Automatic annotation (TrEMBL):
Transmembrane segments: 9-27, 39-57, 77-96, 102-126, 147-177
Cellular compartments annotated: Membrane
The family this protein is said to belong to: Belongs to the TMEM175 family.
Entry GO CC: membrane
Top-rank taxon: Bacteria
Protein name per UniProt: DUF1211 domain-containing protein
Main localization of the protein described in the UniProt heading: membrane
Keyword line: Ion channel, Ion transport, Membrane, Potassium, Potassium channel, Potassium transport, Transmembrane, Transmembrane helix, Transport
Membrane-protein topology: Multi-pass membrane protein
Alphabetical list of PANTHER family matching this protein: ENDOSOMAL/LYSOSOMAL POTASSIUM CHANNEL TMEM175, ENDOSOMAL_LYSOSOMAL PROTON CHANNEL TMEM175
GO molecular function: potassium channel activity; proton channel activity
Length: 188
């Protein structure tokens, strides 16, 4: 089975996710700098989520580029990832609207955790018939550390919510630069 439709569909869904997130940004009611102040949590949550969706889009692109074929299982694993990513606009809006309180931040972390789990599952499905990808991903320590950090962020959100948010920012920082393992394997 070819990979073109999988990649095109995924790109479309991710574009819609970003569009939904930006539509949640509301214009301030005033025309001075003070009118922007109450919107900073919404904007900050949007920026972080935009970075996360961009990270997934970028790494998904590299991963799909590395494979030669897909299967029905891969299609379902990809839909599983897209499902969790489609919840990012909801939790983004929730944490922004409620100014980084515990439950919305913990749910945000849960969606990030499940997205990373789904991404790992997709990678494992793709590796089954794609040795180049399997060699490039290896043990995926970065992905596993990220999943652990999401769990720490979820717990921290209940103790000190901004600490949970800081953990999510840290994980995004770890992944901000594209994963070069796949690119390096494709060049060799």
């Amino acid at each position: 089975m070819g990979k073109g439709r999988l990649e095109a569909f995924s790109d479309g869904v991710i574009a819609i996710i970003i569009t939904i997130m930006v539509l949640e940004l509301k214009v301030p009611h005033g025309s001075d700098w003070a009118a922007l102040e109450p919107l900073w949590p919404v904007f900050l949550s949007y920026v972080l989520s935009f970075i996360y969706v961009g990270i997934y889009w970028n790494n998904h692109h590299h991963m799909i580029h590395a494979v030669t074929r897909t299967t029905g299982g891969v299609l379902w694993a990809n839909l599983h990832l897209l499902f969790w990513l489609s919840l990012v606009p909801f939790v983004t809006s929730w944490i922004g609207e409620h100014h980084f309180t515990a439950v919305p931040l913990a749910c945000y972390g849960f969606v990030l955790f499940m997205s990373s789990t789904a991404y790992l599952m997709l990678a494992r499905c793709l590796e089954t018939h794609n040795e180049v990808l399997k060699a490039a991903i290896g043990s995926d320590w970065k992905g596993k550390i990220s999943m652990l950090m999401y769990l720490v962020g979820i717990g921290a959100s209940f103790v000190y919510p901004l600490a949970g948010f800081a953990v999510y920012v840290l994980v995004a920082g770890i992944w901000f630069l594209p994963d070069r393992r796949i690119e390096a394997r494709l060049k060799s």
